[in-house]
Amino acid sequence: MLKKTGPYLLISFLILVQSACVPKKAIPTARQELGTVNTSLKEQEAALSRLDQARKKKEQLNEIDDTANTRIRKYIEKTSREIDTLINRNSILIGETSIEKADWDRLRKALSFSRNAVKTNNEKIEFLEDLISRNLVVRIDQDVVFAPGKYVVQPETANAIGRLFEPAAKEIDALVKKYPDFPLSLVITAKGYSDATMIAEGSSLYKELKERVKLQTANPGNKELNKELSVARAQAVIGLFKTYTVNRSSTGGNIRNILYLHEGKGEAFPDPEITDYKTNDPRRRIVLLFWSIFPD
């Protein structure tokens, strides 16, 4: 009986010995490689920090809308946290002195995962650099689109409005085609601005705007009326852009979500770098159309 079981016991013993062995020479190399990967991860953290500063600058210059700005900021913060967590985990493995087989397995898995993470992060950073470096806003002069004291676009103007939207549409198409593997979301925001000119009480515009804000206040002041005028014009521009995108062929197959927003800024100044605005300054009578794409 012992003669029959002997070979099986020997084979089992050899398998056990083999599984317990750890390639001791490979461990320092793997730890060194993981340290190199950690260096790459730290460089990616620094790149994300620079991108966040560029995002903040666009925010200060009113060159990015609030919704897109918040989403991009959160995307950068989330990616930075993931990188920081990975760096800390890798640092523990790099500094361990134990060479048990379980430690070796963890080291190999960490190295493989971290290499993939570096590749993915590089793609994210490239995309964000590409996005933030682009012009994300189109200036639309209200005097070109709207008749004085009006917030409804005339049909003849609407038919020719595509030339104003075409630059932004081409930029969007370029990003979508450049990153086909990224599931993307698109945010289009129109911000309307007005000057501080008095809207004459009893005028047709006064009556129309007062009717629009009657649920907010029974006796609106000039600021409220001008803000409502800016809201109405931003709303009209968004409607035009929706019509334009529906009629325009697009290859945006990887755009999963499109969000259209509009808001009125009233008598606020549209450009923080201009310090000499006048009460009836035509530079204040504009709609800014913002666009932004980011990975879901």
Notes on the structure:
The protein is α+β, with helices and mostly antiparallel strands and 296 residues long. The chain has helices spanning 2-20, 26-60, 66-95, 101-132, 142-145, 155-159, 162-178, 204-212, 222-247, and strands at residues 137-141, 184-192, 255-264, 286-295. The protein folds into two domains: 21-132; 137-295, 60s Ribosomal Protein L30, Chain: A (2-Layer Sandwich), CATH 3.30.1330.60. It has a four-stranded mixed β-sheet with strand order 1-4-2-3, with helices on both faces.
Total count of strands: 4
In the sheet with the most strands, the strands line up as 1-4-2-3
- The tally of helices reads 9
The main pleated sheet reads as: 4 strands, mixed
Poorly predicted ranges? 10-19
What proportion of the residues form beta strands (DSSP E)?
A: 5-15%
Question: What is the second-level CATH architecture of the largest domain?
Answer: 2-Layer Sandwich
Structural Rg: 30 Å
Tell me, briefly, the overall form. Answer: elongated
- CATH structural class of the largest domain: Alpha Beta
CATH superfamily of the largest domain: OmpA-like domain
Q: Helix/strand/pairing class, anyone?
A: alpha+beta
Task: Kindly report the average pLDDT value.
Answer: 87
What is CATH's topology name of the largest domain? 60s Ribosomal Protein L30, Chain: A
Helix content: 55-70%
Order of helices and strands: HHHHEHHHEHHEE
Q: Separation of termini?
A: 66 Å
User: How many domains would you count in the coordinates?
Assistant: 2
